[in-house]
Amino acid sequence: MILTEEQRDVKRAAREFAEGEFRQRAREFDEKEEFDLSIWKKACECGFVGVFIKEEYGGPGLGFLEHCLITEEFWRVDPGCGQSVVSCTFGAEMIQLFGTEEQKRRYLPSLVRGDAIIAMAITEPDCGSDVAAVKTVARRHGDRYVINGTKMFITNGCNAHYILVFCLTDPEGRDIHRRHSVILVERERKGLETEKIKGKLGIRASNTAEIRLNEVEVPVANLIGRENNGFYQLMSFFNLTRLHIAAQGVGVAQGALDLALSYVKKRRAFGRSLSEFQGVQFKLAEMATRIEASRSLYYRAAMLVDRGEVNPALISMAKWFAGETGVSVANEALQLHGGYGFIADYDIQRFYRDAKIVEIYEGSKEIEKLIIARELLKSSLL
To answer: How far is CA 209 from the centre of its chain?
Structure first.
């Protein structure tokens, strides 16, 4: 797929921003497990945050492909910093897809301006891939919901002004896929507690938290979409956000390849540059080919989404293959660095650690393969 001139401009601008804002401080953020949110503010001012949000709700009104292009370039420079910026609208997709007009006008513009951060709370301590098994409960009392439960591994959990909580609203419902809803909880609600998770393998700059909800009361007006329709809303949400993860996989892989290319050109062994050895050249060729294939997959899937044609199988292919590519390429890039790749003085070790998460969150690679197979089997029966 050939990008338009506007899309190429978006891609170039995102790369320039990331080089100027991430490169010099990435190691610091990784070591301290924190991020300077003034960089996120600056990214908002430059128009890189929430580009998929429609103009009537304060956004640029670009496509999800443009959002993915920005993600790729940010992750190419540094995954931890990239995640800390682009994830600040993670959940806006749910509001734009299923929120009321009042909710869209109330919450979305602040995310684009850099006045607020949103988080999506799905995973629980005993529930990851099986989202229908979540135990967090929202019981309705008149015009309010009272929420109790615990969420785990929530991106921006400590920073978010708004948290979209995926929870049970009909625990006894006969259909396990008609028991859940998505409810917005504001940061200041009594009974909401967040605790930062430290010691992560990778993307340490990104805030990840455990969230505890103890008798948290919110108005029924905070319901996003229809009551007990949350599972199906979540599946539609993932059809967008998994493309975002695919772009992360391509970004971390491209960044790792960039580091490998730079290293093998400079490093000498047996009297020659490493780049002159055929074995090294084969590795580089394989890495670059996997990256191009992954990029083409997510480009095509995102382009179709922007045309209104959602293809779950293609989206899952992109997410799975790009995630696997990120891990594979980072591994090979570190191998090319030899012992130097194993120490903190070289950025490749950080990319190696950062890459693994792309195979895990928003649907593990095993889940993506199941989706692909089910879609194939479904179509073969038609």
So the answer is: 15
**DSSP sequence for 256-297:** HHHHHHHHHHH-EETTEEGGGSHHHHHHHHHHHHHHHHHHHH
Q: What is the pLDDT of residue 209?
A: 98
Active-site residue, 362 included: yes
| Pair type for strands 118-121 and 162-168 | parallel
Give 231-380's CATH code, choosing from 1.20.140.10, 3.30.70.2190, 2.40.128.280, 2.160.10.10.
1.20.140.10
Write out pLDDT tens, residues 186-223: 999 999 999 999 999 999 999 999 999 999 999 999 99
**Residue 314 CB-density burial (10 A; 0-12 exposed, 13-18 middle, 19+ buried):** buried
Length of the chain: 382
Residues of the chain with pLDDT under 50: 382
Q: Which of 362, 366, 368, 375 is catalytic?
A: 362
Closest CA to 230 of 122, 127, 96: 122
Tracing tokens 């800390």 back to the chain, one arrives at: 84
DSSP state of 151: E
According to CATH, the topology of domain 5-113 is Butyryl-Coa Dehydrogenase, subunit A; domain 1 (1.10.540)
Domain range summary for the chain, segments of one domain joined by +: 5-113, 118-228, 231-380
Q: What is the DSSP string of 152-218?
A: EEEETTTT-SEEEEEEES-TT-SSGGGSEEEEEEETT-TTEEEEE----SS-TTS-EEEEEEEEEEE
Burial of 121 (0-12, 13-18, 19+ CB in 10 A): buried
**pLDDT at residue 128 in the model:** 82
The SS3 call for residue 92 is helix
Domain 118-228 has CATH 3.80.10.10: no
Q: Hey, what amino acid is at 287?
A: M
